[in-house]
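Narrative of activities, Objective 1.

The group set out to show that a structural description can be obtained from nothing but a protein's sequence at a throughput compatible with the screening campaign. Below is one input-output pair from the validation batch, recorded exactly as produced.
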Amino acid sequence: MTTSQTPSVAPATDPTTPAPASGRWARVPGFGRPTARFVYWWAIALLVANVGIVATGGAVRLTGSGLGCPTWPRCTDDSFVPHGALGVHGVIEFGNRMLTWVLTVVAIATWIAVLRYARSARRDKWLVTLLALGIPFQGVIGGITVLTKLNPWVVSLHFVLSMALVSGATVLVYRLRPGAPPAPPATPGRRLGRSLAWLQYLVTWVAIYLGTVVTGSGPHAGDTDAKRNGLAPDNATQLHADAVFVLIGLAVAIGIFTRVLALREQRTAYTFLGLIAVQGILGVVQYNTGLPIALVIAHMTVSALLLIAATWLVLQFGRTGSADAESTEPANTTSVSTGS
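Output recorded for this entry:
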């Protein structure tokens, strides 16, 4: 008597489901086998943290707490923490230094997530590494700022580097977003749009830097005894305003351009246009009301949001054909709508 045996068939597995994690990271939720969504949200956390440090850094300067901790890396010559004699300014400055550690933790977590994500492209790994290294470098620049007694040109460099990290984190978020739609074909209209987007991005940087020059000439230098850059505040403000006027013209032109051609970048173009309108209103009101602290912080925060929008628009216009195919998730992967 013969019997036949039916070969066993392994159960089908979903290729989009991460395999069980093993090794040292197996017990760390999410990091054992990172998913696209997990890595994406860590990238967003890094972007938000970088914007947050811009706002809190502005609060330090605007409250005159730039030298609340008079030395670096210690708060005083004999202590890492402020003491009562330093008053509220010491608390504010020390608090901002502690927030830098929060940013550091977020940067390290994002770096680990991206490096462990199976579908991370080499460029994404390089980018997140540079962003992570930018945090300690930013701390060094901050230390130089304190040791030079808030030299206005060093202060401006400190802010510019923060904004560079914001722009870089925006690129990381864009590249890692799951479920990205297919890239549209290259057309003459899109090539022109890419040039306009790059021009808007560059002018945004010019306006941001000139804003730091205005700050260096104005009353909010971070400490009552801090040196100013020696420029006339009215002249510096006018130069900054001229750059903003050019930026407004570009934003209107790009908004009309994307509307007429019905490009998918239209939403981002309109977002930038709305932000520059808000920024213009904040700038005029703060100038005519004696630079109140709350409005200046809002002005700085919107500057970061403008740079995010300008960066995003460049990235959208830069996608052509299958250039981003390696970072696009399969159609059956759970995705997050990005509106791009």
